[in-house]
Amino acid sequence: MKDSIPRSPTAADLKPVLERAKAFHKQEPWRHIPSDDLFAIEDPVTGKRLYCSVFGNLDEMYALNVYPGEAGLASFAAFLSMQEISLLAGHHYLAQQDLIQLEYTDRENLTSEEWKSIKETGVAFRGRRAWPQMTRYRPGYAPGPLNPADLRLLHLALEKVGEIAGQVGEGVLDLRPVMDEDGITIFVRTPKKTKDGTLTWRDEWDTVPLVLPGEEYDGEALPYDELRLGRIKRAGYPRHNAPWEVHTGYLMLPLEPESDAEECELPTLPHIQAIMEEEKGFALYMFITAAQGARETLAEAFLDAIEEMEAIPQTVHVLTPEAETAMTSICDALEIDVIAAETLPLIEKLIRGFMEDFAMKS
Predict the structure, then answer these.
(1) DSSP 8-state secondary structure symbol assigned to residue 59
(2) Are 39 and 178 in contact (CB under 8 A)?
(3) Domains along the chain with CATH numbers
(4) 239 and 314 in contact (C-beta within 8 Å)?
(5) Residue 183, phi-psi category: left (phi > 0), alpha (psi -120 to 50), beta (remainder)
(6) Residue 224 φ/ψ, nearest 5 degrees
(7) Residue 141's beta-bridge partner residues?
(8) String of b and e for 210-233 (b: at least 16 CB within 10 Å)?
(9) Interhelix angle for 294-309 vs 321-333, to 10°?
(10) What is the pTM of this model?
(11) What pLDDT digit, counting tens, does each position of 45-87 carry?
(12) Helices H, strands E: what count in the chain?
């Protein structure tokens, strides 16, 4: 499955952003702004907030992350959770990031296309962790390059974050957010037009909800074949004490491009559906497919597994709120307990092996 994106940027689009990125790196804003400080800049064109964070104060990486709008804010919350979650959950949440990222890396880490684009602008870079690598993360799609609209937002963020970092360094501004039960109170720099049309900027503090992944999920349970489920009930299958692991979620492996794909199309990310029995480590079902309609295949696969094993699990372990919600109705009907687990070790082991094979073939 593909989705079209705006045209690729020209050297004229890219040059002012690279110039700003070069000055930003020289300024070293990470010396003044810790990576856990979240703040926002309001885009004067769209009115959308750009939630920003700067990395580098712990010398882990030098980067500017820009999360556009409310979807971006949810992405930041997901990022916070990803520091302590499993491989599968990390794939699932990373695939839903809405993020414009500028990372400073080494020359050898750039792709040939990235190097070519920089060279065409005439903006020179040199040194370790000094070369700008810009990546756009879009929910459900493989990470890719920035388009002209993304570049405009990044240019704005670089300009304003540079100003803000200077004020923090001078000691006239404290960016530290405050978290409480209402959310997170953050610094926001907003534009305002004067009567003569001049754009000015003012500062304020605003409390915004910071919802971590899984705290609010309003998805629907999976539909299932009630006649078939009735037959399973009447079959009198015994209860299986060993839990079953059940997972549905994104996988950070882009689907192979179609032979007739347009250059301006983005590859989507697939969904994995997996069911494993924990006692003997049997893989009862695993399927990797396009995300659209993927959840619907899981219900039939679950009933298939019950009929093949001639047993009904006492408990089902799930990882994501999507999987928990998806399995609720079918498990309620069969009196199966659904337990939210921190990890699904058997499915993760299976996926690690799959990813290693994928990497070897790439």
Answers:
(1) S
(2) no
(3) 2-208 (no CATH), 226-361 (3.30.420)
(4) yes
(5) left
(6) -145, 165
(7) 268
(8) beebbeeeeeebbebeeeebeebe
(9) 50
(10) 0.84
(11) 999 999 999 999 888 899 999 999 988 888 787 766 655 567 8
(12) 9, 17
